Amino acid sequence: MKKIAQICGWLGLGMILAGLIVYSLTAVMAWTVYLPLILGCALLLASITLQFREIRAGLTTRSARFGSNALLMVLILLGILIVANIFAARFSWRLDTTAARQFSLAEQTRNILKSLNKDVKITGFFKSGDEAFTKELLTEYAHYSDRLRFEFSDPDKKPGLAKKYQVKSYGTLIVEAEGKQERIEKSEEQLLTNAIIKVTREGKKKLYFTTGHGEKDPDSDGADGLATARKALIEENYDIAKLLLARESAIPADCSMLAVAGPRTELFASEKSLIMEFLQKGGKLLILLDPASPDSWSELLGEWGFKVGRDIVVDASGFGQLFGTGPTMPIVSQYEEHAITRDFNLMTFFPEARSISRGENPPAGLEFREIGKSTPRSWAETSPISGQAEITFDEGKDLRGPVNLFAGAEMPATAAAGEKAGKTRLLVFGDSDFATNSYFDTQGNGNLFQNGVSWLAEEEDLISVRARSPEDRRIAITQTQSRALLYLGIIVLPLAIFIAGIAVYRNRK
Questions:
Q1: pTM score, two decimals?
Q2: Sign of CA dihedral 500, 502, 504, 506
Q3: 433 with 350: CB under 8 angstroms?
Q4: How far is CA 435 from the centre of its chain?
Q5: Residue 368 above 80 pLDDT?
Q6: Do residues 117 and 168 both lie within one domain?
Q7: CA–CA separation, 234 vs 106, rounded Å?
Q8: What is the rounded average pLDDT of the residues 363-388?
Q9: Could you give the C-alpha distances from 348 to 186, 231, 379, in angstroms and in order?
């Protein structure tokens, strides 16, 4: 009887093990899994029943008590580990120790994910085994939102799914939300975040850039153009268009923001009337002026609480020399409290800027904020710089720094009968070059420009520091150095340990 019981026990364990192996291979709970598990449990139960007296007698011995105590300690330890894993899964904490924070999501991405109010599905089409980097990135995304889920598919194994999404290359990501779909070909954070923005937002806001006064062109790829800024705005789901004010009877009703970037000629009275009417009804205006911009633009802003200085800001800190420009490129590294610069810790540079400050008689109800000031070693030079052998500060004539370079203002708008009153918003920079193709990617210039647009367009959740391209921090070594490392790790170190072991053994003997 005892031999039969032992055979039943071993067979039972074998059947249970076989069932678990089948499940690990198929990942499906079918009869091929249930049958061996059920038979195994039945055989184990029969073995215990047949040996019940021997088992009970064995449990009363001294060795059994010690064994049961050891088993209890093991179970307690396993219980602690299980509870710890449950808490780790629900309240996980991740730490990025890389110098460039290359495994941490940008602030904008985190804000977008935390505010998701729609379910987002991301499908990645990769050759099996090639999805490791993207999986790590998407795992980080899912860490910040329960509404985002992702999966991977091999186009070779599931050609029907690849055909459905019209996937033609490995590495394609399809981002979906409530019927909207975006496709990206690279696993880059900024591309992925922009795709999520596009599929989760209702409609697109339209931004108009004025033309006809020598303004900087949003379509130009030249050094003085705004093509880089335009591309960045389009990626954040904005529509960009041009507007010639001189031939319009009204600013278009779908205008979410009107931008004037570096005007060089005077503003017509008819154009001023259009802009004033637009602002009075709750319009949003972005103006980037230069020291050479005509006074008519400054006069327009004066009626909305801005004072535009007739000067050029000089920075004696020496930062401009880093870019080969000299003292007329002031730097801003500290910012006043404002939504645009919330948690903004990047430097910004402004080639040839003029001062922007609060006017003397602002309209009633206007909230005016000076946002960005130059360093204490700067001033606003009121004399012409050309022809001066040395630029010096003139007490009583020049404005001592720090000098404010950009400011924002808002006030309740006048609403027509039956319409909801919104807010008029203005953002004025004393320089337009900082947003051009030459300087857009310099430090925080691009982020500052995009944050300003987001504030004006009332898309405050987009205001943040955006993702940067990951740095390539690989170590470049020669073939000789590579072989030296190989010999050191494979031959020298193991041999040294072996010799040390022999030496210790001989000394002890």
A1: 0.68
A2: negative
A3: yes
A4: 20
A5: yes
A6: yes
A7: 19
A8: 88
A9: 29, 20, 17
pLDDT in tens, 19-53: 878 776 666 667 787 888 888 888 888 877 877 77
How confident is the model over 162-184, as a mean pLDDT?
A: 92
Task: Give the residue numbers spanning the domain of 40.
Answer: 1-60
In this structure, the answer to whether residues 89 and 185 fall within a common structural domain is: no
Cβ neighbours around 12 below 10 Å, total: 21
Torsion of CA 152, 155, 156, 158, to 10 degrees: 80
332 in a structural domain: no
Q: Report CA dihedral (219, 222, 226, 228) to the nearest 10 degrees.
A: 90
Residue 53 and residue 133 in one domain: no
Q: Which amino acid is at 187?
A: S
Q: Is there a single domain that holds both residue 447 and residue 414?
A: yes
Which of 462, 453, 369 is closest to 411 using CA atoms?
Answer: 369
| Encoded amino acid at 18, one letter | A
Q: Report percent pLDDT > 90 for the chain.
A: 47
Q: How far, in Å, are 142, 163, 377 from residue 124 at the CA level? A: 14, 13, 52
CATH number of residue 169's parent domain: 3.40.30.10
Instruction: Report whether pLDDT(261) > 80.
Output: yes
The total number of structural domains that make up the chain: 5
User: What CA–CA distance (Å, rounded) separates 323 from 189?
Assistant: 29
